[in-house]
Specification:
globular; 8 helices; seven-stranded mixed sheet; about 15% strand; Spore Coat Polysaccharide Biosynthesis Protein SpsA, Chain A
């Protein structure tokens, strides 16, 4: 929890905000991501999603709280567990970022500053960087963002970004039921349809095209996203 030691009182991280880093076989990078995230928030939680390498050890040695799952349950399931734990502790918001180093922890203040203006979900948008991505990645991000924006009823420039900040009330209301990558798309649709405020802020990345480090499976996961988004679009509003 937080940072303890000389000069800790001068740290200006928000005590009401934590961060979660879902990680799967990310031992080479997760420690550095944790160390750079710790100064930005009050607590860093790593959910080791069934890794077979030293992900948990590296994350713990870097100063994160770590919870390990015996099998790979998927990014959505890892985030759901983290939300239950962190919001259960009383945090008002949770930042999500990936373990591979693409999301720069130093960019977290951008999300927090916009969140403080009132949005319930802030997305770290990469749409200004789409031209730097491979053709397949660029097309996937562009098409999915347009289709999901249509389902949500409002424009979302980069719906697949995993660099976000969620307000507690949003998750308590809409839930986070899907287990894999589709969870991040479906929650945008549910949030927009239920009147929560969404906002985006442009971010810089450690590297633009994350195909080499991503566990995303283009066909299977795209079909899952489509199914989840359609389901979220036609759910009955409570």
């Amino acid at each position: 929890m937080g940072i303890v030691g000389p000069g800790c009182c001068s740290m200006k991280f928000p005590l009401s905000i934590a961060a979660v880093i879902p990680a799967f076989n990310a031992a080479p990078s997760v420690g550095d991501v944790v160390r750079r995230t710790l100064p930005q928030v009050a607590e860093v939680l790593v959910v080791d999603d069934g890794s077979i390498d030293q992900t948990s050890v590296e994350a713990r040695n870097a100063g994160a709280q770590v919870v390990s799952q015996e099998i790979n349950r998927g990014k959505g399931a890892a985030l759901r567990l983290a939300f239950e734990m962190l919001f259960g502790k009383g945090f008002e918001a949770v930042v999500t970022l990936d373990a591979d180093g693409q999301h720069l922890p130093e960019e977290i203040p951008k999300l927090i500053d916009l969140w403080r203006e009132g949005p319930d979900l802030v997305l770290g948008s990469r749409d200004h960087l789409f031209e730097e991505m491979s053709g397949v990645r660029k097309a996937s991000n562009g098409i999915s963002s347009r289709l999901i924006s249509f389902a949500a009823g409002q424009r979302v420039g980069d719906v697949q970004t995993g660099f976000r900040i969620y307000r507690r009330g949003l998750i308590e209301d809409v839930g986070f039921p899907e287990d894999r990558f589709e969870a991040e798309s479906a929650v945008v649709v549910r949030a927009a349809r239920r009147g929560f405020q969404l906002a985006s802020v442009p971010i810089h990345l450690g590297f633009a095209d994350g195909r080499c480090t991503s566990h995303y499976r283009p066909i299977i996961d795209s079909l899952r996203i489509a199914k989840a988004v359609i389901g979220a679009r036609f759910e009955r509003l409570r």
